[in-house]
Design brief:
- The protein has 2 domains: about 280 residues, Rossmann fold; about 160 residues, no CATH class.
- It is built from 17 helices and 15 strands.
- The strands form 3 sheets. The protein has a 6-stranded antiparallel sheet, with helices on one face.
- Helix 7 packs antiparallel against helix 10, helix 8 packs antiparallel against helix 9 and helix 11 packs across helix 13.
- The chain is elongated.
Length: about 550
């Protein structure tokens, strides 16, 4: 519950330190006295967007603080997950708004973001106002309210997980189909290219080898002429060396000291004969005929065309050939993958539909129970002939199942069921909101409920019945209500009067608890706008009930 609220330099409130009580507390006061300022300060503490214009004129900053006490495990676990210590159940939320637009936000001394503040705030306080009735009219909010039970939330989480898997598989299928489609469009060209590249029988470096051969062939006449001269000279040298060696060996037979010279000359003769043989072999290789030269030129032209068309080099063309071959092979694999994927999708869709059916059945069961209880509550709120219904229509599968939830109402006997946004008047809508909220709350919901002038448009017996329902809610929740109705104010356990005055030339809002004669006078003012004897007696009679 909310234990205390501190406000400094916020709009018309220079300073406020307010202790809150259990049960039902009402705030009353003249229009414009500052009741909405208190609610605005609390909304900022709970994560509303800050506006520097809300800082009291002439001040540098506004400071807001709320102290809560809770034993709710879910809330304490949320704080623990965020690294916020709240072992004793005390939650102190501070918000500081500066004139330069900066805002400091913390829980138990730990800094938090605005979204974190909103998340924590939703678990601490529920605010019902005329504005929130607009949200009640939205189908997605109606669905969230119906789904708020632990049992349905568990099934919804299970369903959502399966649905996300289905969506992921369908997305994968779409992307795969797009790839296959692109491949099918390009297949004819790729197959033509592959045939051309494989038909070319490419060998890395072949073009360079052919260029070298053609370069040699173009100089073959010059090379053959000089190789022939060289061969003839080597022939003569070989014969001369052979003759010299023969004579030298004869001389050695008489002088053994010539052995070394004989050995050296033998080596020279052998090397010369070997060179002569190599030159002869080389000379025979230069026998290029016109047909062979034409073939080489034709092959080089083919390679140059392939090279230009497929990447600028023979290596690039070979790489492109291998790439196309892999792509065509993988496209066949992708076709098999698509078939497998379609099978998985059908299997997953069956799982999703099974879980959607389970979710639907739980919604039907809860809707039937809530329909009865909300209709019963509406009768207590002076809508005796009203009939309420939670209609569940089947629509396309989505992340929340295949159900569309609609809150329906027939406010008066003989009227047909219509969506609450189409059928309810302002006063009726306030009571419908109260009936719905009171039946959707359970022991694990927020402990503090704030009702901001939801009594607009009602009076008399209906107002009295609204106060009884709120009083009943106060047995299990802390109720804080801003009201203009004496019937509601008279039921409160605690009564805060909000008024304003001028101090040192400035308007200031004040809040104070009232009881006794002060409370009687305020109830009388709410009844008739004055403190006449009749209104005072009426006020006393209300307080005695």
């Amino acid at each position: 519950m909310l234990e205390s609220l501190k406000i400094n330099n916020f709009v018309l409130i220079p300073s406020l330190d307010l202790e809150l009580n259990e049960g039902m507390t009402v705030l009353t006061g003249e229009t414009g006295s500052g009741k909405s300022i208190v609610l605005g300060a609390l909304s900022l503490i709970l994560g509303a967007k800050a506006d520097k214009d809300e800082i009291r004129a002439g001040e540098e900053k506004a400071e807001l603080e709320a102290v809560f006490r809770t034993d709710r495990k879910a809330l304490l676990r949320l704080l623990e997950d965020k690294g916020i210590d709240a072992e004793d159940g005390q939650i102190i939320i501070r918000r500081q708004i500066r004139a330069n637009g900066r805002s400091i936000y913390s829980v138990n001394g730990s800094g938090i973001t605005l979204s974190e503040g909103q998340e924590i705030g939703r678990m601490l306080v529920d605010i019902t106002s005329q504005n929130s009735s607009i949200g009640l009219m939205r189908k997605d909010n109606q669905r969230r309210m119906l789904d708020s039970s632990k049992d349905i939330l568990s099934s919804l989480a299970d369903y959502s997980c399966s649905y996300e898997k289905l969506i992921a598989l369908e997305k994968e299928k779409t992307l795969l189909e797009q790839r296959i489609s692109r491949w099918e469009e390009d297949r004819a060209y790729m197959e033509y290219s592959l045939n051309e590249l494989e038909g070319a029988d490419l060998i890395a470096g072949e073009d360079d080898e052919i260029k070298e051969k053609l370069s040699i062939a173009s100089s073959s006449e010059f090379i053959v002429e000089h190789l022939t001269d060289s061969k003839e000279a080597l022939d003569e040298a070989s014969r001369a060396l052979s003759q010299a060696l023969s004579s030298l060996k004869k001389a050695r037979s008489r002088d053994e000291s010539l052995e070394d010279i004989v050995s050296r000359l033998e080596s020279t003769s052998i090397e010369t004969d070997d060179i002569l043989y190599t030159v002869s072999e080389k000379l025979s290789s230069y026998s290029f005929d016109p047909y062979e030269l034409e073939q080489l030129n034709s092959r080089l032209a083919t390679l140059q065309r392939i090279r230009k068309k497929y990447g600028g080099s023979l290596d690039a063309a070979i790489a492109r050939r291998d790439e196309i071959k892999n792509l065509l092979s993988s496209s066949e694999d992708e076709g098999m993958h698509l078939e497998q994927l379609e099978k998985k999708i059908e299997e997953q869709r069956a799982i999703v539909l099974e879980k959607a059916d389970e979710l639907h059945n739980k919604r039907i069961k809860r809707a039937e129970k809530l329909t009865r209880s909300i209709t019963s509550t509406l009768k207590k709120l002076s809508m005796e002939s009203a009939q309420f219904d939670i209609r569940i229509d089947r629509v396309a599968l989505s992340g929340t199942g295949y159900d569309q939830i609609s809150f329906m109402i027939a406010p008066n006997k003989g009227e047909k069921m219509s969506a609450i946004e189409d059928a309810a008047s302002g006063g009726e809508l306030s009571r419908i909101m109260l009936a719905i909220k009171s039946n959707f709350l359970d022991s694990d919901d927020v402990e503090t409920l704030i009702f901001d002038e939801i009594d607009t448009g009602i009076s008399g017996h209906a107002a009295s019945n609204v106060s009884l329902v709120m009083k009943e809610l106060a047995k299990s929740h802390q109720i804080i209500a801003i009201t203009h109705l004496a019937q509601i104010a008279s039921r409160a356990d605690s009564h805060i009067l909000v008024d304003k005055s001028e101090e040192k030339g400035r308007t200031v809002s004040h809040l104070r608890y009232i009881s006794g004669d002060d409370k009687v006078r305020e109830i009388a003012r709410l009844l008739s706008g004055d403190e006449s004897e009749i209104s005072m007696r009426h006020a006393e009679s209300l307080l005695e009930v």
